[in-house]
Amino acid sequence: MAKKILKEAESEENQKLLPSVQALKNLIESDRYLYNVTQMMFDEIPEKYVDTPMGTPQVRNYKQMLLMLNRIIQRAPEFNTTGLVGTPINEILDYPMATKAGYVFFINPKINEKLRDILNYWGKFLQTPDSTYVLNTSKNGWLSDYALNEMAKVADGDKFTTIFKCTSEDREKHLGFTSWDNFFTRLFNPGIRPVQDPDDPDSIANACESAPYRIAHNL
Protein backbone atom coordinates (compact mmCIF):
# COMPACT_ATOMS: atom_id res chain seq x y z
CA MET A 1 0.00 0.00 0.00
CA ALA A 2 2.73 2.46 0.98
CA LYS A 3 4.71 1.86 -2.21
CA LYS A 4 1.65 2.65 -4.30
CA ILE A 5 0.86 5.74 -2.24
CA LEU A 6 4.45 6.99 -2.48
CA LYS A 7 4.34 6.74 -6.27
CA GLU A 8 1.04 8.62 -6.33
CA ALA A 9 2.38 11.26 -3.96
CA GLU A 10 5.51 11.80 -6.05
CA SER A 11 3.48 12.12 -9.25
CA GLU A 12 1.12 14.65 -7.69
CA GLU A 13 3.36 16.88 -5.60
CA ASN A 14 0.91 19.75 -5.93
CA GLN A 15 -2.05 17.83 -4.52
CA LYS A 16 -4.24 19.82 -2.14
CA LEU A 17 -3.67 18.80 1.45
CA LEU A 18 -6.54 18.08 3.80
CA PRO A 19 -6.96 20.78 6.50
CA SER A 20 -5.45 18.63 9.26
CA VAL A 21 -2.38 17.75 7.17
CA GLN A 22 -2.02 21.34 5.97
CA ALA A 23 -2.07 22.47 9.61
CA LEU A 24 0.89 20.19 10.39
CA LYS A 25 2.74 21.52 7.34
CA ASN A 26 2.09 25.10 8.42
CA LEU A 27 3.38 24.37 11.92
CA ILE A 28 6.59 22.76 10.65
CA GLU A 29 7.32 25.53 8.17
CA SER A 30 6.47 28.42 10.50
CA ASP A 31 8.65 27.28 13.40
CA ARG A 32 12.38 27.24 12.58
CA TYR A 33 13.18 24.93 15.49
CA LEU A 34 10.57 22.36 14.47
CA TYR A 35 11.57 22.71 10.83
CA ASN A 36 15.19 21.88 11.65
CA VAL A 37 14.20 18.97 13.90
CA THR A 38 11.94 17.59 11.17
CA GLN A 39 14.73 17.77 8.60
CA MET A 40 17.18 16.13 11.00
CA MET A 41 14.71 13.35 11.75
CA PHE A 42 15.04 12.10 8.19
CA ASP A 43 18.72 13.00 7.77
CA GLU A 44 19.62 10.81 10.76
CA ILE A 45 18.19 7.65 9.19
CA PRO A 46 21.21 5.48 8.26
CA GLU A 47 21.72 5.24 4.52
CA LYS A 48 21.51 1.44 4.63
CA TYR A 49 17.81 1.73 5.47
CA VAL A 50 16.67 2.53 1.96
CA ASP A 51 13.47 0.55 2.52
CA THR A 52 10.90 0.40 5.32
CA PRO A 53 10.45 -2.77 7.44
CA MET A 54 7.83 -3.79 4.84
CA GLY A 55 10.31 -3.51 1.97
CA THR A 56 8.87 -0.33 0.48
CA PRO A 57 10.97 2.80 -0.24
CA GLN A 58 11.75 4.79 2.91
CA VAL A 59 10.38 8.33 3.01
CA ARG A 60 13.32 10.74 3.06
CA ASN A 61 11.82 14.16 3.82
CA TYR A 62 8.85 15.76 5.53
CA LYS A 63 7.20 16.84 2.27
CA GLN A 64 6.98 13.23 1.14
CA MET A 65 5.68 12.34 4.59
CA LEU A 66 2.88 14.90 4.39
CA LEU A 67 1.85 13.87 0.89
CA MET A 68 1.65 10.25 1.98
CA LEU A 69 -0.25 11.07 5.17
CA ASN A 70 -2.69 13.05 3.07
CA ARG A 71 -3.48 9.96 1.01
CA ILE A 72 -3.34 7.34 3.75
CA ILE A 73 -6.05 8.98 5.86
CA GLN A 74 -8.44 8.91 2.93
CA ARG A 75 -8.12 5.13 2.58
CA ALA A 76 -8.63 1.95 4.54
CA PRO A 77 -5.76 -0.47 5.18
CA GLU A 78 -5.56 -3.33 2.68
CA PHE A 79 -4.80 -6.91 3.65
CA ASN A 80 -1.23 -8.16 3.47
CA THR A 81 0.86 -10.63 5.39
CA THR A 82 3.13 -8.25 7.31
CA GLY A 83 2.93 -7.16 10.93
CA LEU A 84 2.37 -3.51 9.97
CA VAL A 85 -0.74 -4.29 7.94
CA GLY A 86 -3.12 -2.09 9.90
CA THR A 87 -0.67 0.73 10.54
CA PRO A 88 0.53 2.21 7.24
CA ILE A 89 1.34 5.49 9.02
CA ASN A 90 3.71 3.64 11.32
CA GLU A 91 5.32 2.06 8.26
CA ILE A 92 6.51 5.40 6.91
CA LEU A 93 7.53 6.74 10.34
CA ASP A 94 9.13 3.62 11.80
CA TYR A 95 12.74 4.68 11.14
CA PRO A 96 12.32 8.45 11.63
CA MET A 97 10.78 7.79 15.06
CA ALA A 98 13.88 5.85 16.09
CA THR A 99 16.29 8.76 15.54
CA LYS A 100 17.31 11.26 18.21
CA ALA A 101 15.63 14.09 16.31
CA GLY A 102 12.58 11.88 15.81
CA TYR A 103 12.23 11.47 19.57
CA VAL A 104 12.31 15.25 19.99
CA PHE A 105 9.81 15.67 17.16
CA PHE A 106 7.26 13.19 18.46
CA ILE A 107 7.25 14.35 22.07
CA ASN A 108 6.56 17.95 21.06
CA PRO A 109 3.06 18.96 22.27
CA LYS A 110 2.37 21.14 19.22
CA ILE A 111 3.25 18.29 16.85
CA ASN A 112 1.11 15.86 18.83
CA GLU A 113 -1.85 18.21 18.66
CA LYS A 114 -1.66 18.26 14.87
CA LEU A 115 -1.09 14.51 14.63
CA ARG A 116 -4.14 13.96 16.84
CA ASP A 117 -6.28 15.89 14.37
CA ILE A 118 -4.88 13.84 11.48
CA LEU A 119 -5.59 10.56 13.25
CA ASN A 120 -9.08 11.71 14.27
CA TYR A 121 -9.86 12.47 10.62
CA TRP A 122 -8.71 9.00 9.63
CA GLY A 123 -10.63 7.41 12.48
CA LYS A 124 -13.86 9.06 11.37
CA PHE A 125 -13.34 7.89 7.78
CA LEU A 126 -12.76 4.31 8.95
CA GLN A 127 -16.17 4.38 10.64
CA THR A 128 -17.99 5.19 7.39
CA PRO A 129 -19.42 2.79 4.77
CA ASP A 130 -16.90 4.23 2.28
CA SER A 131 -14.16 2.34 4.11
CA THR A 132 -15.68 -1.08 3.32
CA TYR A 133 -14.16 -1.12 -0.17
CA VAL A 134 -11.24 -3.19 1.18
CA LEU A 135 -13.66 -5.83 2.48
CA ASN A 136 -13.57 -7.78 -0.76
CA THR A 137 -12.25 -11.07 -2.14
CA SER A 138 -9.30 -9.71 -4.15
CA LYS A 139 -5.66 -10.48 -3.32
CA ASN A 140 -5.47 -7.40 -1.07
CA GLY A 141 -9.01 -7.76 0.22
CA TRP A 142 -9.81 -8.85 3.74
CA LEU A 143 -12.44 -11.36 2.63
CA SER A 144 -10.34 -13.45 0.27
CA ASP A 145 -10.10 -17.15 1.10
CA TYR A 146 -6.47 -16.73 2.13
CA ALA A 147 -7.15 -13.72 4.38
CA LEU A 148 -10.12 -15.36 6.10
CA ASN A 149 -8.17 -18.57 6.66
CA GLU A 150 -5.21 -16.67 8.11
CA MET A 151 -7.41 -14.69 10.50
CA ALA A 152 -9.19 -17.87 11.57
CA LYS A 153 -5.84 -19.58 12.12
CA VAL A 154 -4.56 -16.74 14.30
CA ALA A 155 -7.79 -16.91 16.31
CA ASP A 156 -7.17 -20.65 16.76
CA GLY A 157 -10.26 -21.72 14.85
CA ASP A 158 -11.35 -23.39 11.63
CA LYS A 159 -13.71 -20.88 10.04
CA PHE A 160 -13.88 -17.08 10.26
CA THR A 161 -17.68 -16.90 10.38
CA THR A 162 -17.78 -19.55 13.11
CA ILE A 163 -15.38 -17.62 15.30
CA PHE A 164 -16.55 -14.07 14.68
CA LYS A 165 -20.01 -12.53 14.71
CA CYS A 166 -21.05 -11.81 11.12
CA THR A 167 -24.54 -10.57 10.31
CA SER A 168 -24.31 -11.98 6.78
CA GLU A 169 -22.65 -14.94 5.07
CA ASP A 170 -22.45 -12.99 1.81
CA ARG A 171 -18.97 -11.67 1.11
CA GLU A 172 -20.40 -9.35 -1.53
CA LYS A 173 -22.19 -7.66 1.39
CA HIS A 174 -18.96 -7.55 3.42
CA LEU A 175 -20.23 -10.33 5.73
CA GLY A 176 -22.49 -7.69 7.22
CA PHE A 177 -19.72 -5.36 8.42
CA THR A 178 -20.67 -1.72 7.92
CA SER A 179 -17.22 -0.11 7.99
CA TRP A 180 -13.53 -0.92 8.34
CA ASP A 181 -13.77 -0.05 12.04
CA ASN A 182 -16.77 -2.35 12.46
CA PHE A 183 -14.77 -5.16 10.85
CA PHE A 184 -11.55 -4.46 12.74
CA THR A 185 -13.31 -4.40 16.14
CA ARG A 186 -15.48 -7.43 15.33
CA LEU A 187 -16.97 -9.48 18.14
CA PHE A 188 -16.48 -13.15 18.91
CA ASN A 189 -19.49 -15.40 18.65
CA PRO A 190 -20.98 -16.41 22.03
CA GLY A 191 -18.91 -19.04 23.81
CA ILE A 192 -15.81 -18.66 21.63
CA ARG A 193 -13.82 -16.81 24.28
CA PRO A 194 -15.43 -17.50 27.67
CA VAL A 195 -14.22 -15.11 30.36
CA GLN A 196 -13.69 -16.18 33.94
CA ASP A 197 -15.75 -14.06 36.33
CA PRO A 198 -17.30 -11.89 33.55
CA ASP A 199 -19.16 -9.78 36.12
CA ASP A 200 -16.01 -8.95 38.09
CA PRO A 201 -14.54 -5.65 36.76
CA ASP A 202 -11.20 -6.48 38.41
CA SER A 203 -10.78 -9.74 36.51
CA ILE A 204 -8.34 -9.36 33.59
CA ALA A 205 -8.23 -12.22 31.10
CA ASN A 206 -5.64 -10.75 28.75
CA ALA A 207 -4.09 -7.34 28.20
CA CYS A 208 -5.51 -5.32 25.30
CA GLU A 209 -4.03 -6.11 21.86
CA SER A 210 -1.63 -8.71 23.19
CA ALA A 211 -1.11 -12.45 23.02
CA PRO A 212 0.95 -15.04 24.92
CA TYR A 213 4.56 -14.94 23.74
CA ARG A 214 5.82 -18.29 24.98
CA ILE A 215 4.60 -21.08 27.24
CA ALA A 216 6.90 -23.64 28.83
CA HIS A 217 6.08 -26.58 31.08
CA ASN A 218 8.01 -28.65 33.64
CA LEU A 219 10.95 -26.28 33.87
TrEMBL record:
Pfam families: PSDC
Domain of life: Bacteria
Domain L-tryptophan decarboxylase PsiD-like: 19-151
Cross-referenced InterPro entries: PsiD-like
Name of this protein: L-tryptophan decarboxylase PsiD-like domain-containing protein
Source species: Lactobacillus johnsonii ATCC 33200
